[in-house]
Amino acid sequence: MPNYRIIVDLSDHMLYLLDQDTVIRGFPVGIGKMLTVTPAGEYTIINKQPNPGGPFGAYWLGLSRPHYGIHGTNNPASIGGNVSHGCIRMHNQDVLELARTVPLHTRVTIRK
Predict the structure, then answer these.
(1) Which of 21, 71, 98, 107 is the most exposed place for a label (fewest CB within 10 A)?
(2) Counted domains in the chain
(3) Coiled-coil region(s) at which residues (predicted)?
């Protein structure tokens, strides 16, 4: 049975999906801008919601830090930049794949 975890590397704007300690996928992401940085730390996925509405694209994966999550975007040009209010933005097709793959309580490490 897989043992998934996620590492978000803020320095290279990438989200890595790991099984045990092996990277199985990498996805480009958009992260928080200077005044609303994405908070480094250890979190878990506490909720999942398809089609959350608003600017959150196709899926929302809520983190154990209130008001922060991994989500899709209606603005794919923002991926790769420091553009959000602290959340981690992914291409919609990427966040859908991630949401199908990882269960609730998956560990998420955000590092600088």
Answers:
(1) 21
(2) 1
(3) none
Active site residues: 71, 87
**Mean pLDDT, each 10-residue run in order, the chain (112 residues):** 96 97 97 96 98 94 97 96 97 98 98 96
How far, in Å, are 35, 84, 89 from residue 98 at the CA level?
Answer: 28, 19, 12
Residue 1 pLDDT: 83
Q: What is the pTM of this model?
A: 0.96
From the list 7, 12, 8, 6, the residue with the least C-alpha distance to 81 is 12
| Residue 21 one-letter amino acid | D
Domain hosting 13: range is 4-111
